[in-house]
Amino acid sequence: MAVSVDKVYKTVLFILNKEQRGYVTPAEFNSVAEQVQFQIFESYFPDGNQQYRKNQQNFQNDTEFFNMFKDISYKLYPFEREVNFIYTAGADGFLEDVALGGSSVIYKIGEVLSNYTGINPNIGSITQLTSKADFNKITRSKLTAPDQKNPLFFTTNRLGELLIKVSPLPATITVNALTIPIPPNWGFTQGGLGQYIYNPNGSTDFELDISEQTNLVIELLKYFGIIINDPTIIQAATQEAQSMTVNEKS
């Protein structure tokens, strides 16, 4: 479940007003909100590695709702998707297929399956990632050359686009990847007095899990010069901001 950009913005404004720290325009909020969302998104990876080590050492609680490693993995699920890539002869590799819903910004490449005609057509062959240097060495050797059951790939950049090169060349590839969250946006129209009026149709909520709402508010306030040590302040401000929204609609 996503986090309401309207609720976060109004909570931030309420606290800034209470602290007499001035006003944050929608443009300023949107700019900082994008940075904060990405900052929290990136924090999942070192946190996940730490929790994974605890799992391996049996230090982790494995009950249904108290496994931190699973909780972090759950927060990443909305960003895990199958990205379409198409072979481009001019690049001698696979580029993201914008015509089939591409143009998402890929953060990490996961599993890549190479689909060969007549070879496991419904499953594909798991393709091993390697560096470009190792790729060249391995493919040139008769003893280690990849085949359709054990293909190799490496990634490179082509004019700002992610290019995947696979050996031996498959008919198609299936790419599982993590994509960067879509930037949040508090959209608005202007009223007769020049005030900003929230426009849900022109807005984009935070893509992070609902459990990150308090973290979003705290991190945003840090950028605006306020340190909040007690999360209950955020909860009270959120309720007050919600009351303001209800009053505006009534």
Write a structural description.
Helix content is 37%, strand content 22%. The chain has 250 residues and is an alpha+beta fold. An 8-stranded mixed sheet has the order 1-8-4-5-6-7-3-2. Strands 9-10 form a two-stranded antiparallel ribbon. The longest helix has 31 residues, at 26-56. It starts with a helix and ends with a helix.
Distance between the termini: 26 Å
- The strand line-up of the biggest sheet is 1-8-4-5-6-7-3-2
Helical fraction = 25-40%
Question: What count of structural domains?
Answer: 2
Mean pLDDT: 83
Task: Give a quick set of tags describing it.
22% strand; 2 domains; two-stranded antiparallel sheet; 250 residues; alpha+beta
Task: Please outline the helices and strands.
Blueprint (H helix, E strand, L loop, with lengths): L4 H14 L7 H31 L11 H9 L3 E4 L1 E4 L4 E4 L9 E10 L9 E5 L2 H9 L11 E7 L2 E7 L4 E8 L8 E3 L5 E3 L14 H11 L7 H19 L1
Parallel strand pairs: 5-6
Antiparallel strand pairs: 1-8, 2-3, 3-7, 4-5, 4-8, 6-7, 9-10
Summed up, what is this model?
The chain has 250 residues and is of the alpha+beta class. The protein has helices at 5-18, 26-56, 68-76, 132-140, 213-223, 231-249, and strands at 80-83, 85-88, 93-96, 106-115, 125-129, 152-158, 161-167, 172-179, 188-190, 196-198.
